[in-house]
Fold this sequence. Notes:
The chain is mainly α. The chain is 80% helix and 0% strand.
Amino acid sequence: MISEILRYTLQIALISFMLGSLVDVGLKLDVKDAWTALHDRKFVLLSILSAFVFGPLLAIAIARVFELPGGYALGLLLLGLAPCAPFLPLLADIAKGDPAYSAAFILIAALGTIIVMPIALPFVAPELHAEMVSIARPLLLLVLAPFGIGIAVRRVSKKWADRSDPVIRKLVSFNVLILLSVAFAQNWDRILDTIGTLAIAAQCIFYSGLALFSYAVSYRLPHDRRCIVTLGSCTRNVGAALAPLSAVPDADPQSTTMCILAAFITLMIGFATARILDRLRPKPGLQINAG
């Protein structure tokens, strides 16, 4: 009885978190600023390269090198296809990133995930037994729809969107606490089982590797754009990674556990990376007055 209550509570908390966080992002997103940033071809190219080329390839490589069991490997691959945590704007503030480019990366990640994941998964993960349509449906409902609703509200009334944002943000924060608490309470035994499989180490190396790669390849970008590529690439949208599993009745529990672990790990590494990027930010030179 208790396990059933925890399971339903976890599902409700997860869906509420996804809907709320993406609506919140949409409420804060200025489409005009994002559209301007999307004209920066170098930024867009590096974002796609880091998020949708290197990310999945690194996930596959780590899963094979660590010889992760099938369920954990699939979970890591799903995470590899779902870049950019919804809390990217918060991390961008810490690292002194450009808000317009943060909005642009969120757009790239959201649309890219909806396009790439349904196409890639049947080929790289045939064991999931899911067709493109069944994979795309939950992504459209749980990623694109709330994101679009937030943008639409801001387009209709920027003032109302600004007033709604703090309320939505508090609800999302409350949801995060419930989500992490219930996820640990329901899956603590499975989480402990991952210790002997190197699943946690694999995720830490995965996110760290993404951060190093994206930071290195974007060296020609100004810091306020470079840190957006880095933070957007090294964090994961856990809800988007879990969405395809919700469409499969016989999904491996290990895949779900891998994604739940990501909720903890991507949060910690994301904030740590943002702090490091802030320290790496070029400091204005001291001006010396002659005479």
